TrEMBL record, chains A, B:
<keyword id="KW-0418">Kinase</keyword>
<comment type="function">
    <text>Catalyzes the ATP-dependent phosphorylation of thiamine-monophosphate (TMP) to form thiamine-pyrophosphate (TPP), the active form of vitamin B1.</text>
</comment>
<dbReference type="InterPro" id="IPR036676">
    <property type="entry name" value="PurM-like_C_sf"/>
</dbReference>
<feature type="binding site">
    <location>
        <position position="291"/>
    </location>
    <ligand>
        <name>substrate</name>
    </ligand>
</feature>
<feature type="binding site">
    <location>
        <position position="42"/>
    </location>
    <ligand>
        <name>Mg(2+) 3</name>
    </ligand>
</feature>
<feature type="binding site">
    <location>
        <position position="135"/>
    </location>
    <ligand>
        <name>Mg(2+) 1</name>
    </ligand>
</feature>
<feature type="binding site">
    <location>
        <position position="343"/>
    </location>
    <ligand>
        <name>substrate</name>
    </ligand>
</feature>
<feature type="binding site">
    <location>
        <position position="58"/>
    </location>
    <ligand>
        <name>Mg(2+) 2</name>
    </ligand>
</feature>
<dbReference type="Pfam" id="PF00586">
    <property type="entry name" value="AIRS"/>
</dbReference>
<feature type="binding site">
    <location>
        <position position="42"/>
    </location>
    <ligand>
        <name>Mg(2+) 4</name>
    </ligand>
</feature>
<keyword id="KW-0460">Magnesium</keyword>
<keyword id="KW-0479">Metal-binding</keyword>
<comment type="similarity">
    <text>Belongs to the thiamine-monophosphate kinase family.</text>
</comment>
<feature type="binding site">
    <location>
        <position position="87"/>
    </location>
    <ligand>
        <name>Mg(2+) 3</name>
    </ligand>
</feature>
<feature type="binding site">
    <location>
        <position position="57"/>
    </location>
    <ligand>
        <name>Mg(2+) 1</name>
    </ligand>
</feature>
<feature type="domain" description="PurM-like N-terminal">
    <location>
        <begin position="40"/>
        <end position="152"/>
    </location>
</feature>
<feature type="binding site">
    <location>
        <position position="240"/>
    </location>
    <ligand>
        <name>ATP</name>
    </ligand>
</feature>
Length: 348, 348
């Protein structure tokens, strides 16, 4: 998706490792007060004073997590940052710094890496995280991106996976399933393109889904929203691996059960239309799809009035005693045991 | 180098991502007081109170940074941790936590990953760093390891690359070049083995070199040693990319020149013998070899008496005005401009 038909191609090896790092990182500005020293020494130096430090890491592999046939490099760089920032948000913390390590095969020219770093820079600016370190090296095949995000929080606001209690309400932000269906649309277009490279895709009916897949955003606003509502979640988790597997994680770590209500799942109208077009069950996609960088959290029953009707949040269920198990309650009011069928990058 | 002729091979995909992470990380103990929460949530939580936080990251790629033909997986895991801890040591800081991300192709059975994690665990115990996070995923080809190390230091003890002054003494720890020659010995044995798989290598004459290549150690002792000698280095850097390129980094960032003396380079007798055997100039290897996880630092001239004769340290040169340039002074007392020919993982 590098649109220029006559792109300039500069071999990465011409620059050497240090030259390449200097070139790619020169646009990273330091904006966080906690960043004492960014890129350019053996390590970055951070200063969090009396705050707690939060750290998360993710690795993205070409052919496993993304396909460059429809994922522009700039979007990939943006999404790689978002997926890490989302993990920090899921601690109810504020992302402050990231490190970025890249391995690329020599089929990538410098201009491709520049695009990737443009996306990283855009996300770093949007989420106000300082890029404070990294590594750039060769791969035998494809592109691999490893990002570590660092954040800060007061001890009192930190939210773990193990704090949910029986009778707590289960809440999800935004809507779910759209990123997965965006991927299905892009996969279909790729197949059409392979058969007829001159076909002009008409993607107007899918813009929201494609945006959810190619340019997701992390819910950095949730911390502020909850703070304003005077709600402290009892537990919280990022659902980018799929709602069902993350509900199971929350329940196991909190030693509780859960009833999830099918009719409460927040689905975008475009998502519902496209599920019908693809003849796929929308509930199955919504609970198993993954890549929705939304947050799942539990709140005390007495906080119900503070959150009801808020367009940012949907109450989708409630926690139960552990012995009651983890169930989806269908529209027909039957209870089905919830299984983790979230995305599995290890499966063959 | 998995020696068992009838190894058990368990497919990684049987476990799934979460099962695999649980299985591989169950031996990681938390020993650092600053680790509030380790593996098992969206992010780890760290608490450094009034200390400064130091962060460094490195990516290792099969076929680029290591060859599994002679690098046992356990050693690889150990070395991957060491190389990151070394960067923290080079800040004159103490490593406290690491995150470990791994991508593997499905040719690796579970037992191979267990070996890798055994090495990681061994190093984590040796260096007293807590493994607080990570990611495990598939690769299209080979094994990729990305480690981020976190450390702590008082602001006053932190040592950067940009603090060297003209007339400062240039000091290196340990000896240099041995890791590179260890690699040459292993490469030669691999070629012999490819021709005759029944050959029994006699590596007695090379034990030190091979150990430096396969099981290097980070100089966590240097911080304590310097503290005891009441020396605060003016600048410091890790030389795993090669002495010459790191001297140039120090000089550029500190805006000074340098005279490095060939006859002061600390070389192990085994290293000198093997350079003769391979008919390679020992000075060239010593200053360009890389993978010696030693530290290079500068001290004020008046600290000379505190450090002279100390077996841990060799004074190998002194800093000059920037305009005088960066030179190697040979045994014949001629001055040669120092060039960075450190290892370049980006070159084709």
């Amino acid at each position: 998706m590098i649109e220029d038909k006559n792109p300039q191609r500069t071999s990465i090896s011409q620059l050497g490792e240090f030259g390449l790092i200097d070139h790619l990182t020169k646009n990273f500005a330091i904006t966080q007060a906690s960043t004492l020293k960014g890129i350019g020494d053996d390590a970055a130096v951070l200063d969090f004073k009396d705050k707690k430090v939060v750290v998360s890491t993710d690795m993205l592999v070409e052919g496993v997590h993304f396909d460059l046939a429809y994922m522009p490099l700039k979007h990939l760089g943006y999404k790689a940052v978002v997926s890490n920032v989302s993990d920090i948000c899921a601690m109810n913390a504020k992302a402050t710094q990231i490190t970025v390590s890249i391995a690329v095969s020599n089929r990538f020219p410098l201009e491709a890496l520049e695009e990737l770093f443009e996306g990283i820079t855009l996300a770093a600016n949007e989420y106000k995280v300082d890029v404070v370190g990294g590594d750039t090296t060769s791969s035998q095949k494809g592109l691999i991106i490893s990002i570590t995000a660092i954040g800060e929080a007061d001890e009192a606001e930190l939210t773990y996976r193990n704090g949910a209690k029986s009778n707590d309400l289960l809440v999800v932000t935004g809507d779910i399933g759209a990123a997965y269906m965006g991927l299905q649309v892009l996969e279909r277009e790729k197949q059409v393109f392979l058969v007829n490279p001159n076909s002009q895709p008409d993607l107007d009916a899918y813009t929201y889904l494609i945006e959810r897949q190619l340019k997701p955003e992390a819910r950095k606003d949730v911390r502020t929203l909850l703070h304003a509502l005077e709600i402290k979640p009892t537990s919280m988790i990022d659902i980018s691996d799929g709602l069902s597997s993350e509900i199971i994680h929350l329940c196991k770590q909190s030693k509780v059960g859960c009833n999830l209500y099918e009719d409460k799942l927040p689905l975008d109208p475009q998502f519902i239309n496209v599920c019908e077009e693809f003849d796929i069950d929308s509930t199955t996609v919504a609970i198993n799809g993954g890549e929705d960088y939304e947050l799942l959290f539990t709140i005390k029953m007495e906080d119900f009035d503070k959150i009801k009707g808020n367009p940012n949040f949907s109450i989708i269920g409630h926690m139960t005693q552990e012995s009651e198990g983890i169930h989806l309650v269908t529209r027909a009011n039957t209870k089905i045991a919830l299984k983790a069928r979230g995305w599995n990058p290890i499966a063959e």
